[in-house]
């Protein structure tokens, strides 16, 4: 399927809703969509990191994770461990208030692309996932590389427009959103995504 075709399929899953991401209870999901959160780690987003909007993406991804859980969407965290020679294990942990809850998956990577030399693609397929909601850090680095890897592996991708950052007062996030949109990928604000619809069974699955 072409990039445009993938975008049209994914866009068909999206409906406009009012309000913002809210906290909900964790559920055991059975869903063809997964939320993939990339490299939201203290080393990049902590007080000593070279970004001026780190707290924003940490808090935003925590809110996105909460609403995903409330709607039965599984979450897969991707963590960069390539800089263990430079940072402590604690610095490489997921940055609060975001947290990995019991039963959620973690994939460690050594390259910008979260699919390169990792079990991420096989893990997602084993979960029955075909569509990825993408958030994380950095927009023009590991997030961009992982989005490319997802497309190469045949996954549909929906970019959460306000769910990723590259620092510099959101400059890199806005720039990368424009690049993705021009390529035909759905780039959608969190509040405009109907998370419940993303886990609703299709007509073919329900026999309708």
- The rounded distance between the terminal residues' Cα atoms is 24 Å
Instruction: Give me the strand/helix succession.
Output: HEHHEEHEHEHEHH
**How many structural domains?**
1
The CATH class designation is Alpha Beta
Give start-end ranges of low-pLDDT stretches. Answer: 2-29
Shape: globular
User: What is the total tally of β strands?
Assistant: 6
Please identify the structural class as seen in this structure: alpha/beta
CATH architecture: 3-Layer(aba) Sandwich
Please count the helical segments: 8
Beta-strand content estimate: 15-25%
| Strand order of the biggest β-sheet | 3-2-1-4-5-6
CATH fold group: Rossmann fold
Biggest β-sheet description: 6 strands, parallel
- Helix-residue proportion: 25-40%
Rg, please?
16 Å
Task: Report mean pLDDT, rounded to a whole number.
Answer: 84
Look at the structure and name the CATH superfamily. Isochorismatase-like
List keywords for this structure.
globular, 208 residues, single chain, disordered N terminus, alpha/beta
Tell me about this structure.
The chain is built from eight helices and six strands; from the N terminus they run H-E-H-H-E-E-H-E-H-E-H-E-H-H. It is of the alpha/beta class and 208 residues long. The protein has a single domain, classed as Rossmann fold. Strands 3-2-1-4-5-6 form a six-stranded parallel β-sheet. The two termini are 24 Å apart.
């Amino acid at each position: 399927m072409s990039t445009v075709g993938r975008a049209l399929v994914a866009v068909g899953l999206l409906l406009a809703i009012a309000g913002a991401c809210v906290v909900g209870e964790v559920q055991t999901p059975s869903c063809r969509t997964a939320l993939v959160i990339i490299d939201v780690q203290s080393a990049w987003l902590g007080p000593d990191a070279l970004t001026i909007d780190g707290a924003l993406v940490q808090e935003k991804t925590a809110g996105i994770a909460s609403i995903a859980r409330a709607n039965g969407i599984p979450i897969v965290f991707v963590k960069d461990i390539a800089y263990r020679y430079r940072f402590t294990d604690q610095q490489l942990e997921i940055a609060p208030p975001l947290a990995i809850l019991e039963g959620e998956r973690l994939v460690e990577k050594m390259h910008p692309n979260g699919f390169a030399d990792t079990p991420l693609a096989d893990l997602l397929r084993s979960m029955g996932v075909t569509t990825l909601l993408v958030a994380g850090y950095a927009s023009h680095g590991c997030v961009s590389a992982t989005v490319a890897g997802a497309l190469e592996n045949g996954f549909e991708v929906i970019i959460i427009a306000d769910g990723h950052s590259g620092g510099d007062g959101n400059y890199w996030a806005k720039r990368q959103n424009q690049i993705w949109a021009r390529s035909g990928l759905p780039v959608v604000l969190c509040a405009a995504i109907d998370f419940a619809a993303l886990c609703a069974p299709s007509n073919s699955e329900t026999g309708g």
